[in-house]
Specification:
Keywords: ATP-binding, Carbohydrate metabolism, Kinase, Nucleotide-binding, Transferase. This protein is an alpha/beta fold. The chain contains 15 helices and 18 strands. It is globular, with a radius of gyration of 21 Å. The structure holds adenosine-5'-triphosphate (ATP) and the ligand O=C(O)[C@@H](O)C(=O)CO. The site of adenosine-5'-triphosphate (ATP) has 26 residues, from helix 12, helix 13 and helix 14.
Length: about 425
Amino acid sequence: MPILLGCIADDFTGATDLASFLVASGMRTVQLIGVPTGPVDLDGADAVVIALKTRTQKTDQAVAESLLALQWLQQYQCEQYYFKYCSTFDSTADGNIGPISDALLDALGEKFTIACPSLPINGRAVYNGYLFVNGVLLNESGMQHHPLTPMTDANLVRVLDAQTRHSVGLVNHQVLDQGVEATGKAFGELAKQGHHYAIVDTLNYDHLVTIGHAARDLKLLTGGSGLAVGLADNFAAKGLLTKKADSGALSKVAGGIVLLSGSCSIATQEQVAQYRQDHPSLKVEPLKINDGSQTADDIVAWYKEQSVSRPALIYATDTPEAIKAVQQQLGVDAAGTLVEGVMAEVVRQLAQAGIRKFIVAGGETSGSVVQALNISAIKIGQSIAPGVPLTESISAQPQLLALKSGNFGDRDFFAKAVEAML
Ligand SMILES: Nc1ncnc2c1ncn2[C@@H]1O[C@H](COP(=O)(O)OP(=O)(O)OP(=O)(O)O)[C@@H](O)[C@H]1O
Ligand SMILES: O=C(O)[C@@H](O)C(=O)CO
């Protein structure tokens, strides 16, 4: 059975973000955790999103895993393929957006694609190639302090150009305002000039729809989740898709809820501060974890003492200064791995104790948690905030999950996520 859209996401919250937009656009969507190694029931899906954890991996490994995901998707002869990365273009010093995109283009025998991270509903817009987050240049938005992927340049033509073997052009907002035909023509002209990539300006929702429609004949698309909004129309216009109004309700799951935050993004810092005001919370201290004076067992024991009626928060979230101090002592990668490792161990133990509802902030953190839970596929439910759906593991004993990208959601996100799980 062919799949219309085969997607590869470079982190787990990014994957649910994309899946949520696809479902909202009328496509039945299944999200897979990693590349399946056995048979999978795709249940008549129009779109499949494979969630990888390649954003911060070593580049060679990230490219190899992305190609493996592509090969797996190709058995379903997808009409289009989609590489989903962060709306803030999060990359390490080595990439990985450029190298993965280059490899996917080569594997598909294609010479041109677009790069469109914008997500206006969450404040991400691209103007003359510069990425703004809530009206502020990317490199002044707080993303310059990201623990793993600090973004110090807002000019995406320059950023992508430094990561790819190929050249990068720009389609600006004036072209977008002229509509689908002019935008498609601009893609064709850049391709003719030998550019393999076009950064595409996007100031609003209508621009996203225009880009999606103009990209109907590109085999590979790359971008954030916003790029998804116009694609269902293309498949419907070709007679390949009947749009679905609703993805169906998720299971009711009884029992306690745990909230875990490993995100240090500005939005998460505010959400943690707000939730802590009237809920029990415990801070994970990387240096104490490192010297053994705080352990996963201690954290689990503390959680078990809390009242189920006020779901407890376990957080490593900290200020840029505190993170820098930890990273100086432990090393950047080691600090991240240490925190993710303890979160994963806590989740493993809580799952064994019968907890089946998890609210997690942070893409890398969500990756560790979902892997610890051995989840292989998830179903997408109602949206808690734009790009953050309630989800359910597809398993004999379903678990409810809310995986929040670092900078998504309002200040009261955690309370809303708890509410959605009751
Ligand atoms: N106090 C801390 N000190 C050092 N590293 C930390 C600390 N707290 C969290 N980290 C690490 O910082 C990283 C945060 O990345 P994560 O992807 O989870 O959040 P995010 O980047 O805000 O979310 P997203 O990728 O969805 O935008 C993780 O590797 C986490 O383990
Ligand atoms: O695009 C985004 O901002 C998110 O889906 C994400 O990838 C954050 O990790």
